[in-house]
Specification:
The longest helix is centred in the last third of the chain and has 30 residues. The chain is 49% helix and 26% strand. It has three helices and five strands; from the N terminus they run H-E-E-H-E-E-E-H. Strand 1 and strand 2 form a beta hairpin.
Length: 136
C-alpha cells in the first residue's frame, strides 16, 4: 500500500467512528481511478467510476445553473444516501450511508474530510506532475 492510499484510508475509516450509519466511503481520482476505499457490499472500482461520472455531470449542472464550482451532490435512495463531494482539484469523495444517518452531521464531517483528502491527493498529484514533467 503506497503512502497516499494509506493516509486516505486512515482518514476515510475514521468517518465511520464520527458519523453513525455511514456504511462506507471511497476516494477516487476525477478520472475514476480508485485511490482508497472502506466499502463493503459494493464493487469499489465500479463505484469509483460512477463517482467520477457524478462529479463531471454535477460540475456541469452547477456551472450551467450559474451556481459556481461544484461542491457536493446527494442521491437519496429508498434505503439510504450516496453523497459525492469535490475533494481538491484531482479527487472525489463518495460516502454511503443508511437512511438513519443524520445528514447534517454527515455533511459537517464529510466536508472537512473532503478538504483533508483533497489536500493529500493534490499534493501527491502535484509531486507526480512535477516529477513526470506534467500530465496531459
Amino acid at each position: 500500500m503506497d503512502n497516499l492510499e494509506h493516509e486516505v484510508l486512515t482518514e476515510i475509516r475514521a468517518l465511520r467512528d464520527r458519523v453513525r450509519f455511514v456504511s462506507g466511503s471511497l476516494v477516487s481520482r476525477a478520472d475514476g481511478l480508485l485511490i482508497a476505499h472502506d466499502t463493503h457490499g459494493v464493487q469499489p472500482e465500479g463505484m469509483a467510476a460512477l463517482s467520477a461520472t457524478t462529479l463531471g455531470l454535477s460540475e456541469r449542472v452547477a456551472v450551467e445553473a450559474g451556481h459556481g464550482r461544484f461542491q457536493e451532490a446527494l442521491v437519496r435512495g429508498a434505503y439510504g444516501y450516496v453523497v459525492t463531494y469535490a475533494a481538491g482539484t484531482y479527487a472525489v469523495l463518495t460516502v454511503l450511508a443508511t437512511s438513519e444517518t443524520n445528514l447534517g452531521r454527515l455533511h459537517l464531517e464529510a466536508r472537512g474530510l473532503a478538504d483533508r483528502v483533497g489536500a493529500l491527493v493534490d499534493a501527491a498529484e502535484g509531486t507526480a506532475r512535477g516529477t513526470l514533467g506534467g500530465w496531459h
